[in-house]
Amino acid sequence: MDFTLTETQQSIVDSAAKLLTKHAGPKRARQVLATSGYDPELASALREAGFLSLMKETGALEAAMVTEAISARAGLVHFGAAAMVAPALGMEIDEPVALSRQRGPVRYGASAKTLLILDGADVRVRRVDSGEARPMRSNFGFPFAELPADGGERLSGAGAKMRAWWRVVLAVEIAGALRGCLTFTTDYVKERRQFGRAIGSFQAIQHRLADCVVLTEASRWLAYEAAFQGAPDDGAEVAISYAAAAARRVFHEVHQMNGAIGFTREHDLHVWSMRLQALALEMGGA
Amino acid sequence: MSVSLFVGSAEEEEFRADVIRFISEYRGLNGFHFQGSKWPEVKALYRAIGQCGWMSIGWSDAAGGLGRSAVREFILWDEMAYARVARPPLGAGIVAKTLIAHGTEAQKQKWLPPIRAGEKFFSLGYSEPGAGSDLAGLSTRADLHGDHYVVTGEKCWTSYAQDSDYLWTLVRTGAVEDRGRGLSLMILDLHAPGVSVRPLPTIDGEQLNQVVLDAVEVPVEHRIGPENAAWRLVKDALDVERHVQFPPARLRRDLEELVAWLRKHEHELDPVVQRTVAALGVGVFEVEALALLVLESVVKGRPGDVEAAQNKLAHAELSQKIARAPFELGLSEALIYGPIEFLYRQSTWETIGGGTSEIMRSVVARQGLGLGGRS
Amino acid sequence: MEFGWSENERSYRNQLREFLAAELPGNWNEMSKDGPGSDAQAAFSQAFCGKLAARGWLTPHWPKEYGGHDAPAWQHAILSEEMWAHGEPRGPQYMNVNWLGPTLMRYGSDEQKRFHLARISRGDVLWCQGFSEPNAGSDLASLSTRAERVGDSYAVNGQKVWTSYCKNAEFCFLLVRTDKIETRHKGITVLLVPMNTPGIEVREIDTVLGDRYFHEVFFTDVRVPVSARLGAENDGWGIAMYALQYERIGLPRYARSARTLELIVADAKSNGRVIDGAFKEKLVAARAMCEAARILYYRVIDQRAHNQPPTADSNVARLALTAADRAVGDLALELGGPAALLYGSLGDGNFRAAMPAGVATGTSEINANLVAQRWLGLPREA
Lengths: 286, 375, 382
Ligand SMILES: Cc1cc2nc3c(=O)[nH]c(=O)nc-3n(C[C@H](O)[C@H](O)[C@H](O)COP(=O)(O)OP(=O)(O)OC[C@H]3O[C@@H](n4cnc5c(N)ncnc54)[C@H](O)[C@@H]3O)c2cc1C
Ligand SMILES: Cc1cc2nc3c(=O)[nH]c(=O)nc-3n(C[C@H](O)[C@H](O)[C@H](O)COP(=O)(O)OP(=O)(O)OC[C@H]3O[C@@H](n4cnc5c(N)ncnc54)[C@H](O)[C@@H]3O)c2cc1C
Description:
The complex is a heterotrimer of chains A (286), B (375) and C (382). Chain A has 286 residues and is α+β, with helices and mostly antiparallel strands. Chain A has a domain at 160-282: Butyryl-CoA Dehydrogenase, subunit A, domain 3 (Up-down Bundle), CATH 1.20.140. Chain A is 56% helix and 11% strand. In chain A, a hairpin with a 2-residue loop joins strand 3 and strand 4. Chain B is an alpha+beta fold. Chain B folds into 3 domains: 10-88, no CATH class; 123-228, Butyryl-CoA Dehydrogenase, subunit A, domain 2 (Beta Barrel); 246-368, Up-down Bundle (Butyryl-CoA Dehydrogenase, subunit A, domain 3), CATH 1.20.140. In chain B, strand 6 and strand 7 form a beta hairpin. Chain B is globular, with a radius of gyration of 21 Å. Chain B starts with 9 loop residues before the first helix and ends in a 7-residue tail after the last helix. In chain C, the strands form 2 sheets. In chain C, strands 1-4-5-8 form a 4-stranded mixed beta sheet. Chain C has a 4-stranded antiparallel beta sheet with strand order 2-3-7-6, with no helix packed on it. In chain C, helix 5 runs antiparallel to helix 6 (110-122), helix 5 (93-107) packs across helix 7 and helix 8 (253-270) runs antiparallel to helix 9. Chain C folds into 3 domains: 7-125, Acyl-CoA dehydrogenase/oxidase, N-terminal domain (Butyryl-Coa Dehydrogenase, subunit A, domain 1, Orthogonal Bundle); 129-235, Butyryl-CoA Dehydrogenase, subunit A, domain 2; 249-375, Butyryl-CoA Dehydrogenase, subunit A, domain 3 (Up-down Bundle). The longest helix of chain C has 29 residues, at 277-305. Chains in contact: A-B, A-C, B-C. At the A-C interface, helix 7, strand 9, helix 8 and helix 9 of A face helix 9, helix 10 and helix 12 of C. One flavin-adenine dinucleotide binds at residues 128-132, 137-138, 162-164, 209, 213, 356, 359-363, 365-366, 369 of chain C.
């Protein structure tokens, strides 16, 4: 056990932070959400920086750290699918990648070139041709589409692996978005004054924000641990179950603390908060 | 409406039947949630309500009303909420009732008839960027210059200001240090020079507004009640209006829509789903009981601050529980744009608008339970 | 960063489990049902801790000079997990190992260290903690038990309350006031008081938790030699806070909760009960909370392992420990059905152990205040 970053890890985290400061952030997220919801520029910056091959070259934990950082900066790319789920299945495939459970809306479905379909005990890998995706309108922070889930090349017996890694990716993404919500809201309650004092000085706010710290921190560490251990079924289940519950709770707490301004599109909170719900639901809530 | 705790007298239930008959012509109009985008239709509906005499159903005879009890008002707006057609307009409630109690003859003459007819509409201009929960800290100034005030400042989160005729607004006429004792109420013409209304798009797809007041002239005779005496008036107005503000049938309707949605997506046989729905059903009755306690305090003319705070708190939280159920149950169809997903986003602010849950809890703790408080 | 156990650590845990399997008597569940302070468990702990000490497992993480083996902090964490998960066979002695030892090592005189640490690491002494008073609970700095200097001793007068285990204790780690009450935390001193000193009267308070959880301790002109003072006069607050940092994260409470969940499942299976969707979901959620508490606890252990000063991460972990205990406590009752209401049942035992988590050693509210102020940097409430 060791919670301290190694030198390699530190340098990965630092260079990811630098890239994300330039190519992501709430302002960028609002622009992207107003159009396709997918950010090809961020995707290519990540590709060029070599982050897509982190899992093979360094390890799953490092790939998870970058996934978390992207989510915490409200990036709109399906990095975890391409950089964690696909390589875990031993595949080199065309980005962007989207993940499907055969039914239900597919996140980033409209921009995907490759679809990984979880089909019971198997996985099917399917090319997405242009015009196949039907975009679906949603307010939950990501672009969604309906996609055909037939055909594709079958990977027998890979289903359990895909499910576990998918869960880990979701847990990591949730952890990042939680951190985004927490940091943003902490700053807000320090600044916002009512009754002659910062609202962050009221215990009614402090205690619930302290709970949010617990939920955010534990979500992140559990997700990292599951990634480090290679997504064991058990660890992946625990990580997503905890993170999904945390997402639901924190969403409401931070909106409550931001008051009316939190519902406006010009306040940044929603770029992190709305996606929490989508992530929590992606595997059916657990 | 479906099963409910409340049964009125024979006449009251007859009245309810009339209301339901009236509403049947407006089925499909959701003015409750989409007043902004459906304004022409909602406005026509309000006019029709006015023609029935129902806008002023609870006003006294002398004020041109029907002089009926608060129970009728409750039934009227609860049914409207159940049908989702409309909310009680600010004009016929808080504005008119305050004018009847504290207005001058001229003020009553000027505003009561068009309100009663469903022709003129008001927005609530209380909140400001620096004054949300702490309303007494507001800073929009009104300075007297001869026969008019010059009003400068900024109001925000102003619902429906884009379509309203007037702003029912609280302004500072005294010193900032006087807090609540330095405020006056006035009616400000939203079309007057110096008023600009800017939309604030919200995550329910509708809008709130920012209302910037730049040296807007308001005639002295548009001030309601004495100068610096607004705090009392604002509170009194709440006392006579709180029974229609959070209609419990809205929740009954939310739950019915949830159940219909669960059926449509074939989840209704799942035992976990059934347990959840059953618990929510009990919650609906609980909130209705709390709403009836509020109604009772209004009917009996008792102060009902605690009842109102309890009711607001429980109402807001249940609306969220119902809307969140599909999310808690892990049903990903709920992410896609539609009625259930809409309720999710809409209900998120129920614990903020109209006084936050934290403030409601403080009222229950301090006034209801007698616990100490800071201020 | 890495999240694995070394071969050594794994084998240490296995050896501990084998040891426990061999040493815990067949009627251990029955014997431990009244809690770590009960007479039965306190007596058992004397022999048990002696055996642990003989293997070097009582205080493995202590420096050699104080009877330890310089083992890494992680080894202590593994030890604590296994002990608490199995109903704490060390009885009240877990306190000695968790916070008394480290505090004595840091603040004790050579003589105090030599005397007390040796006894603790042999496993034959029981201590109690005299902090709380009737009017000083969360607000510990307002304590008023007085110690007046009389020659080369102190005369102690006052009352402590909620003191655990002290009926069987030999020493008390006592906080007293040695300056005016208005000085608050600046006028507090620590005394290491033998419980058989004349003038000490102990009265047990009956609780719903088990035996010997709570006592009132009355001090009437109790003479304590100055040599029994820990640290300097009026320097007690810093010492108490140091001790609390260790105590708060002393018990890996999730370990017992997680084990309870395993036992519930085993129990359900052996009774032929179907683990349906709703049951399973609750189990996963509760287990996830235990795991969350575990990983946040590890975060704190990691800081210790790196010799970093304590941070508000320990308050974060404490909140998670409490939340997990509560979730499992409720679930064990719910799933155990009416039988869980019986004294000594799995559900009951776990529930009683979990119940005071949010109050003992500093309440959740106080921990939340500290997280808000120190972790998030929010302003203090005016
Ligand atoms: C949909 C909607 C419609 C609205 N329509 C109108 C309208 O038409 N006209 C109008 O005037 N206003 C309107 N409002 C504004 C509403 O009245 C305010 O949002 C509300 O009073 C809260 O103020 P705030 O948003 O500034 O939040 P703040 O007061 O900044 O509160 C932020 C957080 O701090 C907490 N907090 C504040 N003080 C305390 C305290 N003392 N103790 C503990 N916690 C505290 C709050 O509970 C909240 O969680 C509307 C709001 C919404 C959401
Ligand atoms: C099982 C158990 C064993 C114990 N063993 C010992 C022992 O061996 N030795 C010993 O000295 N003590 C012991 N204690 C006492 C324990 O340390 C105190 O109970 C604890 O510090 C709380 O004090 P109190 O009980 O007086 O509660 P109070 O301080 O009166 O608190 C009551 C409630 O008010 C809340 N509250 C108080 N202040 C604030 C604030 N500033 N903000 C928000 N909320 C606040 C608290 O969080 C709590 O919910 C034990 C307690 C338990 C439950």
